[in-house]
Amino acid sequence: MNGTVRWGVLATGGIAERFTTDLLAVEDAEVVAVASRTEASARAFADRLGIPRAYGSWAGLVADPDVDVVYVATPHHAHRAAAGLALEAGKAVLCEKAFTLHAGEAEELVRLSRDRGLFLMEAMWMYCNPLIRRMRELVADGAIGEVRTVQADFGLAGPFAPDHRLRDPAVGGGALLDLGVYPVSFAHLLLGEPDSVQAHALLSPEGVDLNTAMLLGWSDSGASALLSCSIVADTPMTASVTGTRGRIDFPRGFFHPERFTLHRDGRDPQEYVIEGDGAAERYSFRYEAAEVMRCLRAGETESPLVPLDGSLAVMRTLDAVRDRVGVRYPAELAATRA
Asked: Which of 213, 273, 263 has its CA nearest to residue 242?
């Protein structure tokens, strides 16, 4: 694929608008269509952002011959259906995080994309951020020695009403899939999939996790990760990775960092700062969109920055956490009864 990459946006919520706004600023990216379950919602979104075509069904979008790649921005519970529909129509897909409701659905999407030779990527924009990539390079080069501990948290104070989507188990509500996916993905990026998962959570009357603590372990290295997420407490939202010869600290907003500090034994702290527009750049989805477009032009069906095997591993860890704290979604229960 050369030249302009033509995008279709599936869903019209807040994250879809933020991503699309950034996408419109990416060179050689064109947003040609948007879809929602209602034509009115799709048309309002299209008019607001200057998108040529609006569809009142997902099927209309994925059948559009001018769409090269579909960005799926639905709630978690619809990721499997929406991304699957696009893949079955022969479209490349960028699917929001958490990748799916549970690992079984993620495995189905990955199998479908690989069987058809189509591009698929989880929208883990944190992995595409240049400072996260630089941190990963430093760790891989041994700047802090062998990694021994990872700490990360992401919490919002709320309060969220019982009818808010974050409290609704039917759409995958709770702190874990919306917020906990970031600390878990941060730990996975550095240490891979853990072989030990412990967790404790405060559950809502509706049965979703409001406040969750996780302790992950890696027996081969002895490393551990202490992670947390919350929709009832405004946590520091910081992250730190400590090795045998140093430490890297991220300030508030670690998942879209503006800077981080490298501490090494016997040396002055060294600060790394994002290039470009500073604080404005840290919120940008452009890095993620650029990686998708690079892969499509190179004929790659998976991104080396956000590999599918890594997304599957994260989903397995999220499943293990939910198993430990007793969170089950209605769709899972229905599948079990069937």
From this structure: 263
Strands 270-273 and 259-264: antiparallel
Residue 97 annotated among the catalytic residues of the structure: yes
pLDDT at 278 over 70: no
User: Model's pTM, two decimal places?
Assistant: 0.95
- The CA-based dihedral angle spanning residues 240, 241, 242, 244, taken in that order and rounded to the nearest 10 degrees: -160
CB 296 within 8 A of CB 68: yes
Q: Which residue, 105, 71, 110, is CA-closest to 308?
A: 110
Q: Give me Rg for the CA atoms of the chain.
A: 20
Nearest to 74 by CA among 16, 8, 113: 16
End-to-end CA distance of the chain: 43
Q: How confident is the model at residue 179 (pLDDT cuts 50, 70, 90)?
A: very high
Q: In 16-115, where do the E strands start and end?
A: 29-35, 53-55, 69-72, 92-95
For 220-231, how does the pLDDT look when each residue is reduced to its tens digit (9 = 90+)?
A: 999 999 999 999
Mean pLDDT of 4-23: 96
- Condensed to tens digits (0 to 9), the pLDDT of residues 43-88 reads 999 999 999 999 999 999 999 999 999 999 999 999 999 999 999 9
C-alpha triplet 249, 252, 257: angle, nearest 5°:
70
The residue type at 204:
S
Concatenated DSSP letters for 127-168?
A: HHSHHHHHHHHHHHTTTT-SEEEEEEEEE------TTSGGG-
Give the chain's mean pLDDT: 95
CB 272 within 8 A of CB 283: no
Q: For residue 234, is pLDDT > 80?
A: yes
Angle between helices 308-325 and 181-191 (to 10 degrees): 130
For residue 283, give the 3-state DSSP assignment.
coil
| Catalytic pick among 76, 97, 256, 282 | 97
Strand-pairing partners, residue 292, are none
Q: What is d(CA 9, CA 94) in angstroms, rounded to the nearest whole number?
A: 10
